[in-house]
# Entry
Amino acid sequence: MKVSFPPRLEFHFPCPIVLVTCGDMGRKNIIAVGAISHACVDPPMLGVAIGHSRHSYKLMEASDGFVVNVPRRNQVKVVDYCGKVSGENRDKFAACKLTATKSQKISAPQILEFPINIECATRKRVNLGSHDFFFGEIVAVHVDESVLDGEGRIDKAKLDPMAAFRESYFSLGDAVCSFGSAGAP
# Structure
């Protein structure tokens, strides 16, 4: 038997958790985002939802793009801090002892200490109600060699990424099966 839940967002399913940097090297900010998704393969695009009341929204609205910074599990305290503290009157880079580095293709900085930085040029913005969904074309990807396997691919165990689920952060467990290998049910 299934129980009905009210139609509101409550992390009833796991979502990736990342830090998005926005603005520019002079006026920059970091926001923790769980509302992130692949949006398109050709051109490659990601999408992030940012609430209108957030300080980062104003920076995203006036910017040419944003950077998706993928954290490791051991960076959870930084992720949590950046998700609960506003950057309007506080420099989160300084507070978390993070290094803002210039991106190659857009004005938003990236976080040097995070193993993956995905530069996204904003291509479209859609008002959804309380949030806007920013679609960003992936224009550059930077990956720390420490998370690569011997064949130059990202190794999940070395990266040790996180997801948000029911108001907590979780690391990803073991793979269940490879895409297309399960066969008929």
